Amino acid sequence: MVLQNPTVLITGANRGIGLHLCKEFIVKGYTVFGSVRPASRDDASVEELKNTGASIIELDVTDEDSIAAAFDSWGDKTLDILINNAGAPPPPRMWNEVTSEALIDKFRVNTVGPFLVSKAFMPALQMSTNPKIVNIASNSGQIAAKTDGKYMAYSVSKTALNQVTKSLGMQMEMIGSKVLVVGIHPGYIPTRLTKHVGPDKMEVQIPKIVNTIRSLDSSQNGGFMDAEGNPMEY
User: Fold this and answer.
1) CA dist 174 → 82, 168, 170, 179 (Å)
2) Which end of the chain has the least Cβ crowding within 10 Å, N or C?
3) pLDDT score at 200
4) What is the pLDDT of residues 41-98, one digit of tens each?
5) How many CA atoms lie within 13 A of 181 on its CB side?
6) What is the rounded average pLDDT of the residues 172-201?
7) 10 Å Cβ neighbour count for 147?
8) Angle, to 10 degrees, between the axis of helix 113-120 and the axis of helix 64-74?
9) What are the φ/ψ torsions at residue 155 (nearest 5 degrees)?
10) Torsion angle, alpha carbons of 28, 164, 61, 83, to 10
């Protein structure tokens, strides 16, 4: 079901995938809110986000007080789609470069952050007739289908994000909530996070992702999929 003038909130919206998702949802007629970290408020990328027509929310996914303040500023508005896009980059690459700080940092941003934002904004999502939480996942988090072990800390955090997606989706069903929770692997798109390398094109993947989000249904709750909505192995 597609709502009239639905509202979407996208975290990490001032660059890369988040910025392009904002642009595409605005083209589709959505009311779009994009989050930026308070530390980035003076960055030129924030001005680019403003120019899309999106409303700006300051939110740091690693700071619970910041998340709470962002929700307070949200007020009594309904939220139809929450896209947890903010993420930490893949490096370090090899096991002997991985430190406890690197593991914790990736986990805090890529796993804990999406959960805490989802938890905080749940009251606004529950007001929607067709609420969706979309976690921007990665095939780096796959276990069964994974063919290499590079970027261990990043992969561990994305594997844990898959479990958050699955568990939260199932718990929404348990309590009779309408909130649908899925993880989407966007493809390997060149962004600052990937040091601008990757075989997939932004202009190809973003419309696919948006179309997939718009067409999600309850049978996909807790699922992990690619940009076109095809199921992927956890």
Assistant:
1) 20, 10, 6, 11
2) N
3) 81
4) 888 889 999 999 999 999 999 999 999 999 999 999 999 999 999 999 889 989 999 9
5) 23
6) 87
7) 6
8) 30
9) -60, -45
10) 0
pLDDT confidence band for 3 (50 / 70 / 90)? low
User: Using the 8-state DSSP alphabet, how is residue 201 labeled?
Assistant: -
Task: Provide the H-helix boundaries in the chain.
Answer: 16-27, 44-51, 64-74, 100-107, 113-120, 122-126, 152-174, 202-215
**CA geometry: angle at 116 spanning 10 and 210, to 5°?**
25
Provide CATH code, domain 7-226.
3.40.50.720
Phi-psi region at 222: left, alpha or beta (left = phi > 0; alpha = psi -120 to 50)? left
Q: In which residue are the tokens 């403003």 written?
A: 50
For 157, residues 6+ apart whose C-beta sits below 8 A from its C-beta are 88, 103, 106, 107, 109, 110, 111, 141
> What proportion of the chain, given as a percentage, has pLDDT over 70?
95
Phi first, then psi: give them for residue 50, nearest 5 degrees: -60, -40
Q: What are phi and psi of 218, to 5 degrees?
A: -60, -25
Distance in angstroms (rounded) separating the CA atoms of residues 104 and 154: 10
Torsion of the alpha carbons at 75, 80, 84 and 85, rounded to the nearest 10: -110
Pairing of strands 7-10, 81-84: parallel
What are 123-145's pLDDT values in tens digits?
999 999 999 999 999 999 999 87
CA atoms within 13 A on the CB side of 159: 14
pTM: 0.95
Q: What angle do CA 47, 205, 3 make, to 5 degrees?
A: 75
